[in-house]
Amino acid sequence: MNILVLGSGGREHAIALKISQSPKTSKLFVAPGNAGTAAIATNIPVGVNDFDAIKEVVLRESIDLVVVGPEDPLVNGVHDFFLNDAELKPIPVIGPQKAAAALEGSKEFAKEFMMRHNIPTAAYESFTGESLEKGYAFLESLKPPYVLKADGLAAGKGVLILQDLEEAKTELKSMLLDSKFGSASATVVIEEFLDGIELSCFVLTDGSNYKILPTAKDYKRIGEGDTGLNTGGMGAISPVPFADSDFMDMVESRIVKPTVEGLKKDNLPYVGFVFIGLIKVDGEPKVIEYNVRMGDPETEVVIPRLKSDLVEVLVAMANGTLDQIDLQIDERAATTVMAVSGGYPEAYEKEKEIIGADTIEDSIVFHAGTKLQDGKVVTNGGRVIAITSFGKDFKEALQKSYQSMEKLHFDGMYYRKDLGFDL
Ligand code: AMP
Ligand code: GLY
After folding, report:
1. What pLDDT, on a 0 to 100 scale, did the predictor assign at position 308?
2. What pTM did the predictor assign?
3. Quick one: which ligand is closest to 69's CA?
4. Distance between CA 56 and CA 117 in Å, rounded?
5. N or C: which end of the chain has fewer CB within 10 A?
6. From atom 5 of ligand 2, which residue's Cα is the shortest distance away?
7. Which keywords does this chain's UniProt record carry (predicted)?
8. Which domains does the chain have, with CATH numbers?
9. Most distant CA pair in the chain: distance in Å?
């Protein structure tokens, strides 16, 4: 089969590597890809939201299957674009249609979905500019901290957690009336604060059947001890030690099953990955958010643990035969540590030469923000390279990732040395 992966991060490198290892893969393309995907696939310089250019590539390269990495094209309707085009219609797309992608594209939609299907989540109300005064009253009825969420996509920055009531009111006003997050904050969801420990659960579905992938936990803050600004993710581990089988049974019966059944009841076709952001509160799981794609950097620990042929799994998802797949998972733990550009997640420089990646032997090197320039691999983003290792437990795996990290260099490189500190 000829397969096209859309995206350019560590997630897409990890997915592409697994696809490249399948005997079912003939040709593999990544658009736009990075320096890492260039070594295992053909990169195509086309953006993930340029649907007309994607169509041209799909027809020119006789693509048989498209795997969508990031949320943007899904929320923008790339799957619907395929279904509405006579030539593209027969080609399966892994990733939900626009209607279901609203689970990530609109926090209000996601909350209403959870309420409708009795899926445990934080209590909430949503507000617009017209109901600002009601929003203030709702804030007054809550205890701090106050959780304010822009309804729409805001590149991971649309959630504010505030201790002070007056500050919460000011921010609410700025989100609703001054477009703090652009049109994304024209509606704001205010939520009850949940106190617990977070983890990520990944589900594959064909719309009726589902399979649960290994759990993972990512580290979002830039600083050690989970301090400082939020990032796209500084590393991850899988499995999550506190997600034991009793806990995961609750996750499956209270959350995963009602989610897949809810999608069906609501007539929301869904072929793809469901990323359920969970929080464990007093031993029980609640949903923090849905995403309609894999997580990054969680993919860099989850997908390497998959022993089954990923292409077979993806084809079963597209064909509605996921029930016939027996997922084989590597028992070992996996960890990934992300090397980032100096200054990230604030301003940082690009095009720093990356050296040493080819000397790393005990780990898998996934490229996130890299590109080829004059035959050299240079930095091209905030998150640059994720180094994934296996071990009998996460500590052993982490030690390997850190040893491998010592062989990697670029100007300004930074990584967290305390992953797993909270476990
Ligand atoms: P989200 O974009 O919805 O995942 O929110 C971003 C982050 O904010 C989450 O990963 C949590 O750490 C935090 N968060 C979101 N909602 C809540 C909540 N209701 N209670 C506590 N923390 C939350
Ligand atoms: N690692 C969190 C995310 O991908 O959204």
Report:
1. 97
2. 0.96
3. 2
4. 40
5. C
6. 295
7. ATP-binding, Ligase, Nucleotide-binding, Purine biosynthesis
8. 2-96 (3.40.50.20), 124-191 (3.30.1490.20)
9. 60
**253 pLDDT above the threshold of 90:** yes
Q: Which ligand 2 atom sits nearest the alpha carbon of residue 220?
A: 1
Instruction: Please answer whether residues 65 and 92 qualify as being in contact, where contact means their C-beta atoms are separated by less than 8 angstroms.
Output: yes
**Percent of residues, the chain, with pLDDT higher than 90:** 95
Whether residue 401 has its Cβ less than 6 Å from ligand 2: no
Contact residues of ligand 1, CB 6 A cut-off: 122, 147, 149, 159, 161, 191, 193-194, 198, 277, 288-289
CB–CB of 103/293 below 8 Å?
no
pLDDT interval class at 283 (50, 70, 90): very high
CB neighbour class for 285 (10 Å; exposed up to 12, middle 13-18, buried from 19): buried
Q: Which of 317, 307, 297 is nearest to 366 (CA)?
A: 297
pLDDT score recorded for residue 156: 72
95 lines ligand 2 (CB under 6 A): no
Contact 310, 325 (CB under 8 A): no
More confident residue, 422 or 61: 61
Ligand 2 within 6 A of 104 CB?
Answer: no
- The alpha carbon of 176 and the centre of ligand 2 are apart by a number of angstroms equal to 25
Q: What is the DSSP letter of 57?
A: H
Q: How far apart are CA 113 and CA 103, in angstroms?
A: 8
Q: What is the pLDDT of residues 16-43, one digit of tens each?
A: 999 999 999 999 999 999 999 999 999 9
Distance from the CA of 368 to the center of ligand 1, in angstroms?
Answer: 24
* Ligand closest to CA 149: 1
Nearest alpha carbon, ligand 1 atom 8 = 159
Whether 125 is in the pocket of ligand 2, judged by its Cβ within 6 Å, is: no
- For residue 334, the CA-to-ligand 2 centroid distance in Å is 17
